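Narrative summary of target 7.
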Amino acid sequence: MRVLVTGASGLLGLNLALEAAKEHTVFGLTNRNPLHIDAFTVLNTDLLEPGAAERLLERTQPDWVIHCAALANLEACEADPEQARQLNTEVPRKLAHYVARGGARLIHVSTDAVFDGQRGEYTEQDTPNPLSVYAQTKLDGERAVARANPDAIIARVNLFGWSLSGKRSLSEFFFYNLQAGKTVMGFTDVFFCPLLANDLGSIFIKMLEKDLRGLYHVVSSQCMSKYDFGLRLARRFGLDESLIQPTSVAQGGLKAARSPRLSLRSDKLAQALGEPLPTISSGIEGLYTLYQQGYPQKIKQMGL
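Modeled conformation, tokenized:
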């Protein structure tokens, strides 16, 4: 299959493109961050430019499109709501329209943050209630994609892994700070169900192979607090877990509101795939294995 991955220099996009390239012909779209890599074809396009989406699809002729590109920095979205709307709502809407017209299959990547996190255990049938500009623009993007391309997969995710910059995921935040002997905060009252980015990439390919459609929660079958996540990571990597200070998110000094309990149910997807979703524990083990293989260094060299 010919696979187009947008946001190919991001945490999910890069790991996904590398996973997909093992068996498919992959085109990875970047904008600001250059990529130097042989595993897949790198294209540079600003999707905000008029006609960019049409030209990109015409050039690559994909069977599958996985749209990872977004403005995912919550504080940046609060500072510039219009840019967040353009990138998180308008670009997906246009892309979904042109993908549908060309007959390719689309996965649009959304977020667990569309929920307010007041109760947790959310299913795909539960009503979202976004708390931040980021979450609102992502929810608007979901709805725009569903209208423009009813056959699209809309995937709500949370993830961790190794990135180009070394600064894109919570796992990297804990790992590099603890490795340097720095004290960090770990939120005891924010719960999430993240998947290792590499696992998430593999799951997306399975979803496309099975020709799934509609809304899915693509998250770990295991949930925990961000503090506990940090402790588990520290233990696996042999780092000093006492450097992680248990903290309430209210003390974190963050501008954008965070949803406290983002435990999402993944039963619908597990049933469709015929297998349970990976656990956070297995994801941390996978993160450690990649580290042992020198994967973070290989990733960083791709951006030099």
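The chain has eleven helices and 13 strands.
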